Amino acid sequence: MPTNPVNARIMLKQGKARVIQRTPFTIQLLYATTEHIQPVTVGIDDGGINIGIAAASNGKVLFQQEVVLRSDIKSKLDIRRQYRRSRRNRKTRYHSSPPAPDGVGDTKKGGKGYSPAP
């Protein structure tokens, strides 16, 4: 159950509690307690992009958090697939040579043809 920071500090100094977690700050009592149970209501809102979690007791909100999901995974996978395909296509062994510039090598069509320098 939640307590205020003053009580937590006093219990830590007296050795009645120990720190379990720093974020969120959580302590564990080192002595037996009564069987008092506090009713806590947990609410979860699972949306498409945002997920909201809250815990409330006696009209007070004890914990609340919002998680934003990543929405860029599909585009990153698409880009990775494009890189992989281009890598595979570059490794072809018998590929056609790149086309020659205009007018070079096509003497039958009235072009200049290739002639080495005299």
Q: How would you portray this structure in words?
A:
The structure is a single chain. With 118 residues, the chain is an alpha+beta fold. The chain has two domains: 1-35, no CATH class; 38-91, no CATH class. Helix content is 24%, strand content 27%. The chain has two helices and five strands; from the N terminus they run αβββββα. The strands form two sheets. Strands 3-4-5 form a three-stranded antiparallel β-sheet, with no helix packed on it. It is elongated, with a radius of gyration of 35 Å. It starts with a helix and ends in a 28-residue tail after the last helix.
Low-confidence stretches: none
Percent strand equals 25-35%
| Average of pLDDT | 84
Task: Tell me the number of strands.
Answer: 5
Summarize this entry quickly.
The protein has helices at residues 5-14, 73-90, and strands at residues 17-21, 26-29, 41-46, 50-57, 60-68.
